[in-house]
Design brief:
This protein has 4 helices and 2 strands; from the N terminus they run ααββαα. It has a domain at 26-85. The N and C termini lie far apart (70 Å). The chain has helices at 2-23, 26-36, 55-63, 75-96, and strands at residues 44-45, 50-51.
């Protein structure tokens, strides 16, 4: 009985961890949707009129709220990706600010 309860607790923990990890990577979900839609890195080529670039033709347009042919991403995922990027940018900006001196002259 104890082994069964321990096993169920372990499986439940793994499920929750996996679910949380998947939910915390919304930008990767957008990238995966674009790749599934046929968009590739380096796929944007003006000379051959090929506009299937992963970032420029798909990810960026989705983040800007535009529709992309063959790609469907829930609005919640887009919002979560934007929020995560904003948080990362704010953290980066705070880390690059010049240190303030606490010593009086």
């Amino acid at each position: 009985m104890k082994k069964t309860a321990l096993f169920l607790a372990l499986v439940g923990s793994l499920f929750i961890f996996t679910q949380a990890r998947a939910e915390s990577q919304p930008c990767k979900e957008i990238k995966a949707a674009c790749e599934a839609g046929g968009y590739t890195k380096g796929g944007h080529n003006k000379k051959t009129n090929t506009y299937k670039g992963l970032y420029k033709d798909c990810i960026l347009k989705i983040k800007e709220g535009q529709t992309v042919e063959g790609v469907t991403v829930p609005s919640e995922t887009v919002a979560a990706c934007k929020a995560k990027k904003a948080k990362r940018d704010a953290k980066k900006a705070a880390g690059s600010a010049p240190p303030t001196s606490t010593t009086a002259k």
